[in-house]
Amino acid sequence: MSLTKVSRTLTEIKPSLIRRFLDVARRRPGTIDLTIGDPSHKTPSHVIEAYVRALREGKVKYSTSRGIYELREAIADKYRREYGLDYSPDEVVVTVGASEAIFSTIRALIDPGDEVLIPDPGFVQYEPAVRICHGKPIHHPLLEEKDYLPDVEAMKELISKRTRVIVMNTPCNPTGSVFTRDILKAIIDLAEDHDLIVVSDEVYEKFTYDGVTHECIATYSPERVIVINSFSKTYSMTGLRVGYLLGPRELVEHIFLIHFYNVTQTSTPAQYAALAALRGPHDFLKEAVELYDRNRKAILRALDRLRIPYVRPKGAYYVFPRIDMFGMSSMEFAKWLVEHAGVAVVPGVAFGDKGKAHVRISFSQRTDLVEEAAERLIKALEGFSKNR
Ligand SMILES: Cc1ncc(COP(=O)(O)O)c(C=O)c1O
Questions:
Q1: Per-residue pLDDT tens for 173-184?
Q2: From CA 247, how far away is CA 227, in angstroms rounded?
Q3: What gap in Å lies between CA 361 and CA 73, rounded to an integer?
Q4: pLDDT at residue 1 is higher than 60
Q5: 20 to 30 Å CA-CA from 179: which of 1, 203, 218, 302?
Q6: How far is the CA of 361 from the centre of ligand 1 (A)?
Q7: Could you tell me if 98 and 118 are in contact, meaning their C-beta atoms sit under 8 angstroms apart?
């Protein structure tokens, strides 16, 4: 058998440009990395302690595949307390990060050739996940002139007999937009009219600014929504790989099958860390949001000074400025920035065609680095036309 004989599906899938730019940044010493969405606030000490305690207590064997009961109970309690939603622990599956939850959910909901509406620009996993599951990704644009909120009327035009799922993400990576209540209700109306399931990725729920708060779309129609969330960002524990999904029992049972046959479970000690995370205290969170807000302002000040247009991010920790004024593609611009400013960002095209004239700047790094990067951007780009 030829070693090059791989599934044809894979020939359409390329490695993430984010990782590629991260590698570029790491190869050039002194580059400030504003590519990746890893949080920089300190992982709460009670989370670390619970992880170590779980190891010491020998909690290193298989757990229940859908996640330890206390953790699923704590997740259900969180949704009751914060959003007034009434999930039972059996309607929760603890996953290997939100990434696995997204993948397992899409795999469970579609058959080959089914269509899935995904945002463009959107998080880099959605399109490959749909393709790997033999589905057809249909891009629904998040337009800059609409503050990167979905145009639900326009989404309607993209629905066909094969459409099964709408994937949405708020607060949004890469744009920082936070969907309004009206948008959420309109998405639910659309899903009801066409009998679709909404998969809502809410991993940045706790990071919002300017007095905006996140709303969970499931509050408008829990029976139509799979909510996806994670401990990665909120608790700064991206490497422990704990996420989860919640939804109506019948759907969750099917998603669970994919989860079970693919990964069996997520790490047992990491689940104990996640349980401690949810039990709190949560006082670290206010400081974390203040940190990202400070970083956001430092980057926005630099963009203002350079007269680079952007939509003010209200959530997550990204801004998605338009850079076509520099006469380069997003790829060329990102490379130019590494070389001339020592700052790595992600070319917007990594997030879909609608990102071609943009770059994504992550402001999740330590404040001193973000401030230094803002200075470097000003220095390199103020002199841009002179030095080219
Ligand atoms: C929108 C979005 N969803 C999901 C994820 C994946 O999160 P996790 O670490 O829980 O797999 C990320 C990570 O960057 C993200 O930005």
A1: 999 999 999 999
A2: 6
A3: 36
A4: no
A5: 302
A6: 16
A7: no
Give the per-residue pLDDT at 44. Answer: 98
139 pLDDT above the threshold of 60: yes
| Cα–chain center distance at 257 | 24
Cα of 135 from ligand 1 centre, angstroms: 21
pLDDT tens string 51-90: 999 999 999 999 999 999 999 999 999 999 999 999 999 9
Q: Is 68 exposed, middle or buried, given 0-12, 13-18 or 19+ CB atoms closer than 10 A?
A: buried
Question: What CA–CA distance (Å, rounded) separates 55 from 33?
Answer: 33
Q: Which of 22, 38, 40, 99 to mutate to test the pocket of ligand 1 (most atoms within 8 A of CB)?
A: 99
Provide CB contacts within 8 A for 219, sequence distance 6+: 83, 84, 85
CA dihedral angle for residue 303, residue 306, residue 308, residue 312, rounded to 10 degrees = 30
Structural domains of the chain sorted by starting position, each given as residue range(s) with its CATH number in brackets: 8-42+284-382 (3.90.1150.10), 61-279 (3.40.640.10)
Confidence of residue 9 (pLDDT cuts 50, 70, 90): confident
Residues 3, 314: Cα–Cα separation, whole Å: 48
